[in-house]
Amino acid sequence: MDDSTPSTMKTAYEARKADGQISGAIGPRDWDRFRQTLKYVPKETQSLLDAGCDRGHWLGFLSKNHKIATMLGVDVSEARIEEARQTYPHLTFESGYLEKLDITPGSYDVVTCLEVLEHIPEWLDTLAVLLSTARRRVIVTVPYKEAIQHTVCIKCGEVVPMYGHLRRYDESTFPQMDGWRLTFGYIKDRGINAALARRIYRMLLPRRGWLVAVYDAYDA
Predict the structure, then answer these.
(1) Which CATH architecture has domain 6-217?
(2) Which pLDDT score, from 0 to 100, does residue 196 have?
(3) Domain ranges in the chain?
(4) Residue 213 carries which DSSP code?
(5) Which candidate, 1, 4, 101, 173, has a CA 20 to 30 Å from the CA of 72?
(6) Which residues contact 115 (CB under 8 A, 6 or more apart)?
(7) How far apart (Å, rounded) are the C-alpha atoms in residues 56 and 92?
(8) What pTM does this model have?
């Protein structure tokens, strides 16, 4: 959509998310992705913030598989946060923009942001906020070398990116940031929930489905 500005796309996305129009179903493929992401969370982590937590499933998974004293999930959608609170009443969630919440910079050992940045036009600004919030490590996952596809919106008739994914990510996309060491990892897409033939193929030759960008503070 050639006449769309980043701000209008951001506004449209947030409106859809707030109204619950962006699907957020979770299944075995997501739980497998969480299991693979878990190894990037240091065992000594005492506090963790998840930015763009959606319905809170990642924090729910962490609460069962990693002993972390303090965890907070943040998302712009009040509806998703309310659902997270109902599903995981033992965890803490807040709705709003991370940079606008009353959170002291550097107050969390680890900040995670899973499958979020590909939806945000001003993603580098968001990355800077993630780094300012973390004390030791920031973990970001995005689709790896995704071929961005477009479709026609049935509501507005405009050509829009499918799934709200705005850009393709690889290792060259993420910038080096002062005070942080950048390394990469990969999460394999094993084809869980796919057709049997595809599932067998991916079990034998799993592809790199997601890129993991890890920023570690030099002075941590």
Answers:
(1) 3-Layer(aba) Sandwich (3.40)
(2) 54
(3) 6-217
(4) E
(5) 173
(6) 52, 141, 142, 143, 210
(7) 9
(8) 0.81
